[in-house]
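Suppose you are handed only two things: the residues of a chain and a line of SMILES describing magnesium ion. What would the bound structure be? This form records exactly that question and the answer produced for it, so the two can be stored side by side and reused later without any lookup.

QUESTION INPUTS
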Amino acid sequence: MADEKTQVTAPGAPIIEIKDLHKSFGSHEVLSGITLSVPAGSTLVILGGSGSGKTVLMKHMIGLLKPDSGRVIVDGEDIVPMSAEQLEKMRRKFGMVFQAAALFDSMTVYENVSFPLREHRKDLSEEQMHDLVREKLSIVGLKNVESKFPSDLSGGMRKRVGLARAIVLDPKIVLYDEPTTGLDPITTDYVDEMILDAKKQLGVTSVVISHDIASAFKVADNIAFLYQGVIVDQGHPSKLRHSEHPGVKLFLQTWFGKN
Ligand SMILES: Nc1ncnc2c1ncn2[C@@H]1O[C@H](COP(=O)(O)OP(=O)(O)OP(=O)(O)O)[C@@H](O)[C@H]1O
Ligand SMILES: [Mg+2]
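ANSWER OUTPUT
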């Protein structure tokens, strides 16, 4: 039985595969046949307009939503039929940065960032946890904030605390839902660098949801463009840049048109 931290997928082989995924809420079909593959150790950026289904798609990658049909294969295992208990184990491979920072307001920064360690690394001493928390906070450019509460922090700082918490278990896959929305340009750069560093130094696979085109083109190995329920174009950023799809063209013009 493989340890849940062991990654079975070789670098470059698909670590997340989505096959013909469909999802409706009532009569509203949000995803109408998504097929996507994320090579281990690469960064995929999912671009798309507001309400196009990016967050819904990401939630399927960790089994927070079940598809109406289609398959979601993570590190060689189909997660769709998994029980709650199996999903919980599978999710330890992931770090997640939710769209809202989703910190626990009644807990300090230290308690927030150490939370996954308390759940999953009961072997660690308090001192070891402290060291890990400090290390992760410094990776996201924060220090001397451990005893503060989320309400004491700016939006950008809260976001960075959320990032620190997502990487505290050294996951092999990190999902970022709008990691740079609402951040100033310098902090945005910081987050982009963090995603690039995690790949280079730790071989982390990242899936980044964004409508920040500049960030997307900076961090992505591949970009997938979600439009009206399907991926209408995907590939290397240089390919997407010259996409012939009218929806992609219009979306990119808002940025490249001005630059
Ligand atoms: N649990 C749910 N129940 C019903 N409808 C939902 C649910 N979750 C999402 N939706 C609908 O699915 C559609 C896609 O939502 P989603 O949050 O994935 O968009 P998004 O691309 O992430 O948008 P944004 O860029 O604004 O975050 C929306 O119309 C939303 O209202
Ligand atoms: Mg969203």
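WHAT STANDS OUT: The radius of gyration is 18 Å. The first strand starts at residue 14 and ends at 25.
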